[in-house]
Every structure is written in C-alpha cells, then in structure tokens.
Amino acid sequence: MKVLFALLFLPVYCFSFVVLIDPGHGGQELGAIGKHGKKHIYEKDISLQISKEIKRYINKQHTVYLTRSFDRDLSLQERAKMADTVKADIFVSVHFNSSIKERHNGFETFYLHNTKNKATKKVERIENKSLEGDDKLINNILIDLVIQKTTKQSKKLASSVHSQLNRTLPSKFKMQDRGLKKGLFYVLALAKRPAILLEGGFMSNKNDLKKIQQRNFIKEYSKAIAKGIEIYLATLTDKTVPIF
Ligand SMILES: [Zn+2]
C-alpha cells in the first residue's frame, strides 16, 4: 500500500517541446498552381492555411511557431535559420504537389535521405527551386552529416505523422497513400534537426484539388498531422533531440 501511495505521487515528466511549422513558398513564389474554373489556387495560400490549423491543434503543452504567418517571401535559408532562432526541436514543412500528368494524385510524407527514386527527384526539383545564390552549391558534407545525425529521428517523426494520415485520408476522403519516402530537400538539411516535408495532395489533379479546399479536409488533415507530431514528441524521454 505504501508503495502504491508513493507511486501515485511520483512526478510525471511531461516535456514541452518547440515545433516549427513551415508553410511552403510565399510572396512572389506561388508554389504549385491549381485551376478551379477560372480561379487560380496557389500552394502558398493552402500551405499557410493548413499550417495555421496544425498549430491550433497541437497540445498547448508544446510551443508552436510558424516560419511565416502571412503571405511573404522567405528563402529556404531564412526558414532554416528560424529553427535556430526559436530553438525548434522539430521542423515540419507543409507543401502540396503538382505534376504535368493530371492523373497523379495522393499524399506522401518525406524525411531527409538520399534517394535515386525518379518521382522523388521531380518533387525535389520543385521544392528546392528557391535556394538562393552560393548556397545552391550546398555542402555535401553538411548534408551527409545532417543525415547521419538526424535521419533516425526524422524517420520516426515522419512515420508517426504518416500513419495518422493513413488512418484518415484514404477512408474519409478516398485519397491515395503514396507512402513514406526519402527525399533530399534542402530546407530539411538546412534545418539541421529532425524534420519532415509533407506533400498533402496534387493541385494538378481535379479530385485532390477539390478535397484540399474542403473545410472538413483541412480540419481532418491538420488534426492528423498534429496528432502524429504529439505522439512522436511523447516518445522522447528527455530534451536530447539531436540538434547540432
Ligand atoms: Zn511546395
């Protein structure tokens, strides 16, 4: 009985972490463009809307920041630098996809790693486009080092988020699961901490585009991501997130 009493009063460690959500593109950089009748829908707007929703759903025990909270230009380097400024434990970049083949559809989740996959190479080219100046020749040694130090945790985070998306999107929205994938995204490498990049559907696909704009989709998609993030953070037993 004494033991039980003592156990009841053992301190419960609830660590608080810093999450940095990165709405892809912004300002002059529109990202993928979807056409809804005569109306143009821009990835930069959808990614911002979703990022704000994710922030809303993450438990208040954690601190959540956005790399941008309105429509403005922001380089990949500035986004990554912000991760240092706010001392982010994890970095989550939010994007929507596009393809010249209209039939391509579905959602996918990336973590930083080298890959030779052709489809991923196309996504990398789009999302890495805005890297500026000399940094285009990003140091391969740095990338290798970041992969070495953070990929294990990034994969865990990606898998936690992706499994929540997989539980929701195919059943509720008939959306195709394209899988959990490796990708060489500079913004993830520059962030130098556990990081993932989400592609929430194809703006070039009519059905995906319709769903992406639905109030209910935005809510369920954001909630699933927030839950995946929380589950991952709950597995961390202390504040030893690999940041360097
Ligand atoms: Zn994008």
Describe the protein:
The protein has 244 residues and is of the alpha/beta class. It has a single domain, classed as 3-Layer(aba) Sandwich (Aminopeptidase). Helices cover 45% and strands 19% of the residues. The protein is built from eight helices and eight strands. The strands form two sheets. A six-stranded mixed beta sheet has the order 4-1-5-8-6-7, with helices on both faces. The protein has a two-stranded antiparallel ribbon with strand order 2-3. Strand 2 (33-36) and strand 3 form a beta hairpin. Helix 2 (43-57) crosses helix 8 (215-234). The termini are far apart. Zinc ion binds next to loops.
